[in-house]
Design goal:
This protein has 193 residues and is mostly beta strands. The chain has two helices and eight strands.
């Protein structure tokens, strides 16, 4: 079992990879939501402890981190703007390699494997950064409190999930007022369209 991991002044939660004895180890921890206050920025907030259960497999200087993290986040609905909470459980499967030096290459093509590869330096793995990335990936592009959310009335702003309003939600383009008058006069003269 690994030693206790605490955040440093910058908010990083560093894990010393030199403490991994043998080929396998685990990180089983819960971190208070206060460690991740600014992770989701204006998109939401972490409201429960973040539970982390990660297995570490060592192969020379390469580490595979597999497991899960779970918490509850509060988001604002994209339609009605009301806050709602959603429980998330994120699966983690990343390969950590030593951070390479600057090779001088300006451009390179990424493969699918590059998307699951991360880097560590100074024999330390930033578990806090890993958690932050996974939490950001779990935030939906358009968060909805429920699939059938009615949103807000575009006229008065009433939340349509709590009831209907008496606003007329049809809009008439004033540029066609002359055409409407002409059509009404035309119908009044007995002509059919």
């Amino acid at each position: 079992m690994v030693e206790e991991i605490r955040p440093n002044a910058e908010g990083s939660i560093l894990f010393d990879l030199r403490t991994v004895y043998g080929v396998r180890d685990r990180i089983d921890r819960s971190y208070p939501s206060s460690f991740f206050e600014s992770v989701l920025d204006d998109d939401g907030s972490v409201v429960e402890c973040v539970s982390v259960a990660l297995g570490i497999e060592k192969d020379a200087d390469t580490y595979r981190i597999k497991g899960r993290l779970a918490t509850t986040i509060r988001l604002g609905c994209g339609r009605c703007l009301e806050p709602y909470e959603v429980s998330i459980e994120s699966r983690v499967d990343l390969l950590f390699l030593p951070k390479p030096g600057n090779s001088g290459e300006d451009e390179f093509e990424m493969s699918d494997e590059d998307l699951t590869t991360a880097f560590y330096s100074d024999e330390q793995l930033d578990v806090g950064q890993l958690i932050r990335e996974q939490l950001r990936l779990e935030v939906p592009m358009k968060p909805l409190c429920r699939a059938g959310c009615g949103g807000l009335c575009p006229v008065c702003g009433k939340n349509m999930n709590t009831g209907r309003c008496s606003c007329q939600n049809t809009w008439h383009d004033p540029r066609f007022d002359g055409l409407r008058v002409w059509l009404a006069e035309d119908r009044g003269n007995g002509r059919k369209e």
